[in-house]
Write a structure and sequence with these properties.
Length: 133
């Protein structure tokens, strides 16, 4: 898919796809790190896919200058999308930032930028200590 075609999708549709892409990366990382009970895998996954963690991740990427201008634009589209309401356990700001990150991952997935997705995820895991979970 071209960038222009991917930009035609709503930010929330991109976030819908990006949520699955991001969670798959987390699950792959966890299963490859150790053979552990499914309950533990699920618990660790939830810690890394929650809005608070994703918000911290994207803020770290932005603060460290990892995102290109185009990527920041896609993130902002997701963050500023209407119709987003945060669950009780998250702040609106964190939930919107997480939606922006998912939008970016969805966009990159649709345009076939698998290498960039992996690079961004690697940066998140290197820049954001596990203690932030």
């Amino acid at each position: 898919m071209t960038k222009a075609e991917a930009r035609q999708y709503s930010p929330l549709a991109l976030a819908f796809v990006g949520d699955a892409v991001y969670e798959q990366l987390v699950r792959d990382e966890l299963i490859l790190s150790a053979n552990m009970p499914v309950r533990k895998l699920h618990s660790l996954t939830v810690q890394k896919v929650c809005a608070e963690y994703q918000a911290a991740a994207v803020r770290t990427l932005i603060d460290k200058g990892v995102l290109s201008e185009e990527e920041q634009d896609i993130f902002r589209r997701g963050r500023n999308a209407g119709g987003v309401s945060a669950p009780k356990h998250s702040t609106v700001a964190d939930y919107r930032a997480a939606t922006g990150l998912e939008c970016l991952f969805g966009y990159l997935h649709l345009i076939g930028e698998t290498g960039r997705i992996e690079e961004l995820y690697k940066n998140i895991r290197e820049l954001l200590p596990d203690s932030a979970e």
